[in-house]
Amino acid sequence: MIVPLDEYLGIDKLPFKVSIRAMIEIAFWGQNQPSFKRAKEIIKRVHNIDISYVTVMNITKFIGKVVYDYNYDKALNIWNNRANIDINCTNKKGTLYIQADGAAVNTRIEDENGSTWRENKLGILFSEKDLYKRKNKANQIIHKEYVAFVGNVETFRILIFAKAVELEYWKYENIVFISDGATWLRNMISELFPEAIQILDKFHLIENIYDYGKFIFQNDMKKVERFKDKIIGYCYSREYKLIEKELKKYKDIEIPPTVCNLPVYLRNNKDKIDYSTYERNGWPLGSGAIESSNKTVVQQRLKQAGIRWSVDGANYLITLRCYQESGHWDEIEKIVVDHLGQ
Q1: Residue 277 backbone phi and psi in degrees, to 5
Q2: Which of 58, 138, 160, 204 would suit a FRET pair with 275, their CA atoms being 20 to 30 Å apart?
Q3: Dihedral of the CA atoms 11, 12, 18, 20 (nearest 10)?
């Protein structure tokens, strides 16, 4: 009896003429390397398999779509059944940290203004157990859980909420959300976790104080420094009224749209600048973790020179990046096997 080789190898019903494990390995290098061409070279060097970069791209996209669909369906199910989640816990311990930010990805689709850039929203979650304090008191995060989505806030909030549910957020005594104070972030976290302590990134605030101060004082840096020290000092002493009094001195100066409107910025975030309390509780004051995560998860792979993505393709790849960086790559084989019915 003669059996076709594809059937003999058990790959005759697979979308590509390679095994599931081989597809997942190819997708690993596809999401890991700066480009699909570079992935092709690495696969040849590591596995001695000569495969075209187009095939690497197609397999990576296929695996990414399977994992993306699985991840979104799971998150949507959690979201639709959130009223049934038992969040009662009498013995709460520790702190769960959540950070989120946006970063632009270049796509092939123009918006109404002719721009091809779309915002990817990235979120990270980690607990105090994931924090390692160095001798210089700086924090090193040894593990993060990542979620990301290129598109609207509505979908992203479903994904980040589902991840928080997986981590059983209700078992933590504190949920601490650190951000740059963007409106969409404030609104999202207030809706999802109204009990969360929101912290305005101190270093982002300082940057905005400098931005505003340099305009107000016409780049007189001695005046800008004194102004910055005064505002931050009032934050630490919890004297928001004195901040308002200080800023009223400049209320008649018209601020151009390219300069941070500090009075509005601080008014929107006045309940998130109690830095003395945050420090006393040992909570980080900066959102540097999400900024470095954007570089690791998004920029190193999706923002290479001259590369444009379809929105779907970017979401598929970035989902794989999140699984890899979260330490969940080994879960992908079961997801793909179940999808293919193997």
Answers
A1: -70, -40
A2: 160
A3: -50
Residue labelled with tokens 């690497």: 56
3-state secondary structure of 125: strand
d(CA 205, CA 228): 10
Element (H, E) at 95: strand 95-106
Tell me: the pLDDT tens digits for 179-230? 999 999 999 999 999 999 999 999 999 999 999 999 999 999 999 999 999 9
Beta bridge partners of 200: 179
Neighbour order of strands in the sheet with 174-179: 145-150, 117-127, 95-106, 174-179, 197-200
Percentage with pLDDT > 90 across the chain: 82
Q: Tell which residue, 141, 151, 79, has the closest CA to residue 284.
A: 141
Rounded Cα distance between 155 and 143, Å, is 24
309, 302 contact by CB (below 8 A): yes
CA distance 58 to 49: 16
